[in-house]
Every structure is written in structure tokens, then in C-alpha cells.
Write a structure and sequence with these properties.
Length: 165
């Protein structure tokens, strides 16, 4: 299970309109991690990042209003517990869990935010391995036909470039 593969699988679950934005407190996980990547894009920052994205990404995520990615790596297994992930699961406990895969040392969960029209309006992905945790939350809609093209292609998109670094 790799970060990009699990994030892409989660993106494929999202099919339409606006959703509730939930802010997670992940300080406990971040403190225990030896390495972390924390990305939050919304509003003007998301718009700016999308201006520099390849056209096939722009089309697929044109209606996304917020993207939050948290990736934590730990020195050794058991440096975080399932209880640490409850801070993520609890705020979405009323959302339908559409994917729940548990293998010997890995787990992937995807929760879908119900929109006012009954259609999915966002999603939350939790991917946990003994030494890694990835959490992805997307608010908004993704055109699935465009997303399929993105998933089937190889895209190298450097966030440092879009940030002007």
C-alpha cells in the first residue's frame, strides 16, 4: 500500500457537490512522527496551485474546494495506536464508511460525506500501516471521467514549484 495509490483510490470515491469541512486535531500523531508532510489547500491557495497544474488535473478537480493531506512516518511500529486515529474517525462517525479493508498490518477506510441532495459531497481516507499513517480529506466534487484519465497517466506535480520556492 503506497501513499499515492491509496489517495487515488479515495479520490475515485468522490462524485459530487459541496461538503462540510471538518478540522482534525492531529497534534498527537504529528508529535510522535519522525517525518511528516502536511498540506492544506483551499480558497486562493488551491486556485493558485491549480493554475500551475497540468490541464488533466485541472479538469478533474475543478469543483474541489478544499484538499487536506496528512502523512506521518514513524521510526518503528507501534509508535501510534488505533486510539490516535479515533480523533479522525469520531467527527465523521455519521458518514457512511464505504471502504473498510483490514489486512494483517494495514488498514484503509474511506468515509463519504453525504451532501444535501443525498449525493456524496466529499470524502475522508485513512490509510494506516505499522510505520505510516496517511489521511486525505477532499471537499467538493471530482469529475470521474477526468479523474480516470489522471489515474491512468503518470503525472509529476511539484508543490514546491507552485509555492514559488
Amino acid at each position: 500500500m503506497k501513499f499515492l495509490v491509496t489517495a487515488t483510490a479515495g479520490l475515485a470515491m468522490l462524485v459530487s457537490a459541496s461538503a462540510q469541512t471538518i478540522v482534525f486535531n492531529l497534534d498527537a500523531l504529528a508529535t510522535k512522527a519522525k517525518e511528516k508532510a502536511e498540506i492544506t489547500l483551499e480558497g486562493p491557495l488551491l486556485a493558485q496551485a491549480l493554475q500551475m497544474a497540468p490541464d488533466k488535473i485541472k479538469g478533474a478537480v475543478a469543483n474541489v474546494t478544499r484538499l487536506m493531506v496528512r502523512h506521518y512516518e514513524f521510526d518503528k511500529p507501534a509508535q501510534y495506536s488505533d486510539a490516535d486515529l479515533e480523533a479522525v474517525r469520531k467527527p465523521v462517525s455519521s458518514w457512511p464508511r464505504v471502504v473498510n479493508v483490514k489486512e494483517e498490518h494495514e488498514r484503509v477506510e474511506i468515509y463519504v460525506s453525504p451532501g444535501p441532495d443525498g449525493k456524496p459531497a466529499g470524502f475522508l481516507l485513512i490509510a494506516a500501516e505499522p510505520k505510516e499513517v496517511t489521511i486525505v480529506q477532499v471537499t467538493g466534487s471530482i469529475d470521474l471521467a477526468s479523474l480516470k484519465e489522471v489515474v491512468n497517466s503518470t503525472i509529476h506535480y511539484d508543490l514546491k514549484t507552485s509555492a514559488g520556492q
